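re the bet — no i am not wrong, look at it urself. input seq straight from the record:
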Amino acid sequence: MRAAPARRAVPTPLPNPQSPGRGWAGVVTMVASGLSNQTGAAVGALAFPVIGPVGVVAVRQYVAAAVLLAVGRPRLRDFTWPQWWPVLLLAVVFGTMNLSLYTAVDRIGLGLAVTLEFLGPLSIALAAARRRLDACCAVIAAVGVVTLMRPRPSADYVGMGLALLAAVCWASYILLNRTVGRRVPGAQGAAAAAGVSAVLFLPVGILVAVQRPPTAESVAWAVAAGVLSSAVPYLADLLTLRHVPAQTFGLFMSVNPVLAALVGWAVLGQGLGSWEWAGIGAVVTANALSILTRRE
């Protein structure tokens, strides 16, 4: 997903208004970031038949670590224990989030998995609000979830449960990132967490390679997933928040479930029915309505 991901450290947006040209540049980079993130997840799914979701996530963690370590350049020897413990928790949450999401994608499809995962940041935003309108948004989102998870013969509740676990991890990722951001300067904390997560996934990657020998094509798909879902969105967001307000950025982020559904259909052939689209629409509407009516 996100992760790394959307779920990634980004700079504070500049408060001064930008020129129309720069505004359009921000829109273009937001679209590029969203499409890249969801396309990366879809491309990674192409490697599932060979190395499985676990193998793809392992490779993605390695790529994310390489990118973030190069950008953040953490001074690990200078870290104190009050800095290390949230970084270690962030590393565990980061890996669990991606593993549960990709496994959910394998079972229930990209669009549904990303929509349910999106409940994580939406819950954080609504929990901090005190307006009646936000309560209405929570009800709308809940209706969307009930619609998506309604009982039916083809329902995969294990896959849905994994997507909800990814949502809990994403919410935890946001809260931990705030703590890490306060205690560790710059992007060093996020980079250190990505590095630790990659180390934790080293034995996992070795085990997968032994049990399910990878092909060159499957490794290429997995690496592409890491680049598209980690490196490109991270760099795109660095540029985006220089040109667009935080509110606009948050509003566009709410469209990610729709992008995921469209990319899942175009790349993986995962079509959705009218009920699924209604559920996705409800979750997106709840988030968009909350953001549009929020005072900066």
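see?? Residues 1-20 have pLDDT under 50 and may be disordered. told u. also Residues 30 and 252 are 7 Å apart (CA to CA). so pay up
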